[in-house]
Amino acid sequence: MNWDDVRIFLAVARAGQFLQAANRLGVNHATVARRVSALEDALKAKLMDRRTTGCVLTPEGEAFVLAAERMEAEMLAAHTSIGETNVDVAGVVRIGAPDGFGVAYLAPRLGPLLDRYPDLRVQLVPVPRTFSIDRREADIVITVHRPENGRLVARKLVDYKLGLYASRAYLEQHGMPLTHADLGQHRLIGLVEDLIYSPSLHYSDEMMRGHQRQFECASSLGQTEAVRAGLGIGILHGYLAKNDPDFVEVLPDHAIQRAYWAIYHESTRNLGRIKAVSDYIYQLMDEEKAIFR
After folding, report:
1. What is the mean pLDDT of the chain?
2. Taking the chain, what is the end-to-end CA distance rounded to the nearest angstrom?
3. Which part of the chain has CATH 3.40.190.10?
4. Which of 93, 96, 103, 174 could cross-link to 141 by cystine, CB 3.0-4.6 Å?
5. Rounded to 5 degrees, what angle do the CA atoms 183, 184, 189 make?
């Protein structure tokens, strides 16, 4: 059995598509299909049903994924113990992050990291969703809750504040609410409730309890721009809004606190590229905590 075939099979199993797996691996679609077929021939078992919409694991494939992931963990551990930490930092590191943190904060600060490691390639996936570390959908995940299960390493990055904000233009036209009850006289902006992936993000109910949101957006940056445009009062990240002259905090006593966590799989703890990126993010947080206060 060829380990490269197993590695490619895992990529397809996690992506659910040959093309997506090929893009992630940096090889062509035909190579991926050929290597999976070679693995099936070696095992004398059909691991995947090929369909026009993607690939579905057979029962044999489901069983083999568990064995393949154990093989993967051993290979990662071998790289770590034998030489990975002694080679230059190179390769791809995918970071999954909420769009507020990923786009507005982290992306503009990655330059020094990339300058330091020219053979490193960082993929930032700033979408409002959860990522599976176990399925290797991302190498490092920035999330708003600490995971309770799995072979994961979690480190708290920083506490941050969420507050009610409006644009100056909106308040000039509609007035400043002075009490929580006054929010009922204003147009409110919140998250799309059925798309919330973490209990920590159910802060619209906490901060706007009893009041209807007329506009909802699944993106925190989308909400920020809606508030900037004078659409209404929304819940914004303090580190994005507090120094922006377009925004005025409303009912500051109703602000709440959340935290960001960095998470990665324990089997990648000492891989050079993972360690370099995670250490860089930790350093940023240590140096710039004041931004989030």
Report:
1. 86
2. 54
3. 87-157+259-292, 160-256
4. 96
5. 65
